[in-house]
Design brief:
Elements: E1 2-4, H1 35-47, E2 50-69, E3 72-96, H2 100-110, E4 121-128, E5 131-136, E6 155-159, E7 162-167, E8 171-175, H3 190-201, H4 206-215, H5 234-245, H6 248-257, E9 261-263, H7 270-283, E10 291-293, H8 305-311, E11 318-320, H9 325-340, E12 352-356, E13 365-371, E14 386-394, H10 403-414, H11 424-439, H12 441-460
Parallel strand pairs: 6-8, 9-10, 12-14
Antiparallel strand pairs: 1-3, 2-3, 4-5, 5-8, 6-7, 11-12, 13-14
């Protein structure tokens, strides 16, 4: 191994902790000043290599020599140093006696250092004196190279010119002035990988930020929800998006390429949670058009999910039930449930009724809930977790042939007293409710006749 036009004094190799990098204004790989000394000991003792180092006007061979300490003969590591009158302006390390396996390992270790010709690096996205960002090449991430277990062997992180960890993207991130002061640990922690991404993103141009952001698409939905969440990618996205915002051309380019992003607010109160649920239901019908992202994307002027849903008329608009058919139909559904589900639905008083008047709303029905603070169970030993304050049905249900649609929706909403849609308690409650309905077909058919009579009487009038 040879470095041209660089020399140093062999005195830097004498003591553990001494290093050519001490007090240097330049950036180098390595920190502790023990690399050559410890490696020479191991190579001579364990591998029987012949090691020669030379620089400028000196040359040394690493040898073993016997020393007497307290009357005991001890084999010591030593340098046999010689000087020449014709110095070379280069530094050179020569290893002999290297086996094929050792040479294969040597070539793997070369990949652990940052240099532009490293085969792990793909296309250069950005570079300056602080670091560099590349795409990841197709070269194999060898099993002996350091990596982060949670991120797998995908992207690569160099800090201090040395490969210290991996990242979950097709990116190679190089931060030259990051120093790791732990002798016992070679690999980076996940939070350190995120920190390196944050530090490098501060220096990026707007165009480079777009390239890096696109490679990080799998975490675009990241939102910071905890006060301390050092492994969250949201701050990195925030910085990259700000870089893009500072360039009007790059901002326009990005928004033209990704016109239909909707961001999600990370923290919601109770009212906002209800709106989020409605908006998500609307979004399910437009998944091919829109993409959900995290709150950092709001800096580029993208709308929130709720705002876009509201703009397209997707939110529920409700009214109180007017006297007449709608009121009578609600009464029929309530009477059916009171007859069949006595001891199953615990409701005192029975929920209020409202009509969903927005024809674009995706809900056929919904319910407003209040957490039940009492420990309460029904006759089937199902825990009553919520009190139903109001049941909503869509106006399109109030037609002569929609009785069964209305009944099933009403029962579904009442079952939310046992839990949310994805809860096991709710699923069990809904299953039992369907069984009760099937066991009471006479009551259901009687109610069906009353439902049809409401519309028949209207037609006669």
């Amino acid at each position: 191994m040879r470095i041209e036009n660089t020399t140093f004094s062999y005195e830097w190799l004498l003591h553990i902790g001494a290093s050519t990098k001490t007090s240097s204004t330049e950036k180098h790989a390595g920190y502790f000043g023990e690399g050559f000394k410890i490696a020479s000991l191991c190579a001579l003792r364990d591998k029987n290599w012949t090691i020669q180092m030379r620089s400028g006007n000196w040359s040394l061979n690493v040898i073993c020599t016997n020393q007497t300490i307290d009357g005991q003969t001890v084999k010591m590591l030593a340098y046999d140093v010689s000087e020449t009158t014709a110095p070379n302006q280069k530094s050179e390390l020569i290893l002999q006696g290297v086996s094929e396996d050792d040479f294969t390992l040597f070539k793997t270790v070369l990949k652990c250092f940052y240099y532009p010709e490293n085969e792990l690096l793909g296309e250069k996205i950005w570079e300056d004196s602080e670091g560099a960002v590349y795409t990841r090449s197709k070269a194999e991430y060898e099993i002996k190279l350091p990596y982060n277990y949670d991120y797998g062997r995908k992207g690569i992180v160099f800090c201090g010119y040395q490969l210290r960890g991996s990242n979950p993207f097709d990116l190679v991130i190089c931060l030259h002035d990051f120093e790791q002061n732990d002798r016992e640990r070679d690999n980076l922690l996940n939070m350190e990988v995120v920190t390196i991404f944050k530090r490098i993103s501060v220096h990026l141009t707007a165009a480079a930020s777009i390239r890096m952001l696109e490679k990080m698409r799998r975490v675009w939905l990241s939102n910071r929800t905890k006060r301390f969440d050092f492994e969250n990618w949201s701050p990195v996205l925030q910085r990259l998006l700000l870089n893009i915002l500072y360039s009007s051309n790059c901002c326009s380019e990005f928004k033209q390429k990704y016109p239909n992003l909707l961001f999600l607010e990370p923290k919601l109160n109770r009212l906002q949670m209800n709106l989020r649920q409605e908006a998500r239901s609307w979004y399910n019908n437009y998944r091919d058009k829109y993409t959900l992202v995290g709150e950092p994307f709001s800096v580029l002027g993208y709308p929130s999910l709720e705002d876009e849903c509201r703009r397209n008329g997707g939110l529920v608009i409700d009214k109180n039930v007017a006297p007449g058919i709608e009121s009578n139909c609600f009464t029929i559904l309530e009477d059916v449930c009171k007859q069949m589900f006595n001891g199953f639905f615990i409701a005192d008083p029975w929920p209020q009724h409202k009509v969903i008047t927005n024809p674009k709303a995706t809900y056929h029905g919904m319910a407003t809930l209040r957490k039940n603070k009492r420990k309460q169970s029904n006759a089937h030993h199902l825990c009553v977790r919520n009190k139903i304050e109001c049941v909503y049905l869509k106006r399109t249900i109030f037609e002569s042939d929609k009785f069964y649609d209305g009944l099933s929706t009403y029962v579904h909403e009442m079952c939310h007293m046992f839990g949310g849609d994805s809860s096991e308690n709710f699923s069990l409650g809904l299953t039992l409710a369907m069984e009760i309905l099937l066991q009471n077909t006479t009551i259901v058919e009687s109610a069906h006749e009353k439902w049809k009579q409401q519309f028949a009487s209207q037609q006669r009038v």
